[in-house]
Amino acid sequence: MEGLLCYDRWASAFRSERPKIPDIGDRYCLGVYRSTHRAAADFMEELMPKYPDAKSNFESAAKFFVAESEALNECANLLFPDWKLPKHLDREINVRAADLLNRARDCYASGIGEIGRALKVMK
Question: Of the ranges 18-32, 64-78, 94-108, which one carries the lowest mean pLDDT score?
Fold first, then answer.
């Protein structure tokens, strides 16, 4: 739940009436989220042979985590071209970034939902 709330707050910061200039904290979070959540997809693939009853749930979760990571990669490239910090506010870029963060959030929520369904099948 906290991960979803983080995404919600993050996207709203870019979409607010007083939007922010992307900063080092955003760059750090994008780096951490996109790498760790992409690794979650690989972990789901490791679990598939161990829990055949939940294989389809883990496959689905892996796809959602890959899609999340791809949305975060796109967001990072949009906000930090050449990995440099922007110096000026660009409302259009911020709105597009908020949309990408919302897409990533939805993928993350779907992936977590699939894990929840897998756990029920495994019991």
Answer: 18-32
Give the number of other CB atoms < 10 A from CB of residue 113. Answer: 14
Place of tokens 């897409």: 103
Which pTM was predicted? Answer: 0.92
**Are 51 and 20 within 8 A, CB to CB?**
no
Query: Cα–Cα distance between 14 and 21 in angstroms, integer?
Result: 8
The amino acid sitting at 10 is W
Furthest-apart CA atoms within the chain: distance in Å = 52
> Which residue from 114, 22, 118 is spatially nearest to 75, judged by alpha carbons?
22
Using DSSP, state whether 37 is helix, strand or coil. helix
Q: For the segment 33-66, what is each residue's pLDDT rounded down to a tens digit? A: 999 999 999 999 999 999 999 999 999 999 999 9
| Domain range summary for the chain, segments of one domain joined by + | 2-11+23-122
The number of CA neighbours under 13 Å toward the Cβ of 65 is: 23
Q: What is the dihedral of CA 109, 2, 42, 80, to 10 degrees?
A: 90
- How far, in Å, are 13, 15, 23, 92, 116 from residue 88 at the CA level? 16, 16, 11, 12, 42
